[in-house]
Inverse folding.
């Protein structure tokens, strides 16, 4: 009996050794059996409600924007020009003609006539009035829009008036309606003009302000402003390059200027620009440093082909400004990358992409941490997140996701 037990033990030991060898052989490279896969690590996450955006990144150029040419309108010789890079604000001289300054005023249209006759009405008068006030020169009260102003002029020699065309009306200035002229007394005649929207009147008080401004600026004190005495641009400017030199005639191209604020310009193809709107939020990635938030301030309307051959696609110019210009103080120009939100879904439910579970019958679901699967429809995918919709989903619900 003892012998039989010893034989049985030996057999069991042998069988155990053979089994261990078989396992060891299977674990060798190229063995028939593969080791079991490691379980996927999981975690839980709360469903959140937020805004989602898909981004597109386009190259841009930091600078001062597109330069525009400046031409002189006053006869004479150029006797002084500013250096490139100079910033010039309202009231400061932009250049000098015959050693007299040509100051900068802000406005949307150039001065096209001599302003000196009291009660002259027009938008050009409004430009002069606004700039004088901004520079600290009081101009007195102005007639209201719709009020009638009487202009008295010396009477001309009597002539036979030409018959007016049928349906025509008396006009003054650039299309403004006026009453027919009438004799006001010996040697004078009057014209009545209605003050229109955006117009001002050259009052006697404003003429006094012009004379004081001329005296302070170093101009001849005449009380009149003639074409070319000053230059009207839309705002402060920075001299980009000079096109003239001292001694050149003042009537002609003198320089090119840009705005003083630094901007980023992006050349975008029409398809790319289609998803960009004025006011869109962007990020500007500089060569070094953290990306800066900004926004789109202008979108060009003219498609232009860049240098690159006949097959180069035409592009629109998109202008971007950063929210904090102080961050750009150390740079005048640089190549940058601008990130645009091409599409935005506001206030949607979002989970990590790893929370999606593919269903055998098709589609997706999410696994609730405390229950079963919930079928979902997917929307936008961006930055590792996915938009989901479905019955039973709510903000704050905990779902399972890969860690």
């Amino acid at each position: 009996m003892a012998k039989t037990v010893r034989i049985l033990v030996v057999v069991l030991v042998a069988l155990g050794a053979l089994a261990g060898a078989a396992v060891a052989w299977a674990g060798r490279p190229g063995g028939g059996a593969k080791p079991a896969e490691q379980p996927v690590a999981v975690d839980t996450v709360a469903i959140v409600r937020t805004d989602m955006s898909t981004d597109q990144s386009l190259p841009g150029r930091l600078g001062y924007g597109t330069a525009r040419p400046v031409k002189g309108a006053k006869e004479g010789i150029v006797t002084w020009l500013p250096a490139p890079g100079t910033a010039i604000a309202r009231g400061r001289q932009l250049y000098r003609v015959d050693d007299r300054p040509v100051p900068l005023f802000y406005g949307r249209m150039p001065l096209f006539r001599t302003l000196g006759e009291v009660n002259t009405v027009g938008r050009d008068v409004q430009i002069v009035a606004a700039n004088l006030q901004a520079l600290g020169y009081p101009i007195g009260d102005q007639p209201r829009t719709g009020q009638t102003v009487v202009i008295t002029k010396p009477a001309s020699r009597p002539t036979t008036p030409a018959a007016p065309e049928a349906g025509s009306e008396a006009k003054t200035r650039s299309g403004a309606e006026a009453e027919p002229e009438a004799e006001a007394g010996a040697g004078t005649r009057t014209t009545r003009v209605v003050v229109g929207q955006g117009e001002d009147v050259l009052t006697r008080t404003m003429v006094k302000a012009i004379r004081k401004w001329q005296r302070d600026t170093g101009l001849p004190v005449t009380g009149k402003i003639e074409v070319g005495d000053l230059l009207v641009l839309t705002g402060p400017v920075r001299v980009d390059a000079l096109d003239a030199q001292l001694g050149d005639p003042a009537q002609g191209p003198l320089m090119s200027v840009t705005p003083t604020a630094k901007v980023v310009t992006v050349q975008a193809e029409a398809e790319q620009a289609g998803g960009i709107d004025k006011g869109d939020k962007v990020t500007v990635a500089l060569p070094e440093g953290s990306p800066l938030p900004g926004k789109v301030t202008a979108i060009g309307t003219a498609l232009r082909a860049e240098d690159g051959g006949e097959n180069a696609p035409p592009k629109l110019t998109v202008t971007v400004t950063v929210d904090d210009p102080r961050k750009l103080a150390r740079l005048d120009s640089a190549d940058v990358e601008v990130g645009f939100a091409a599409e935005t879904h506001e206030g949607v439910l979002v989970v990590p992409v790893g929370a999606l579970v593919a269903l055998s019958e098709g589609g997706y679901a999410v696994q609730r941490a405390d229950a079963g699967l919930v079928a979902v429809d997917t929307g936008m995918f961006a930055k590792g997140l996915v938009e989901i919709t479905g019955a039973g989903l709510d903000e704050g619900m905990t779902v399972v996701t890969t860690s």
About this structure: Residues 1-34, 164-177 have pLDDT under 50 and may be disordered. The helical segments are 2-26, 123-134, 204-217, 270-273. The longest strand covers residues 334-352.
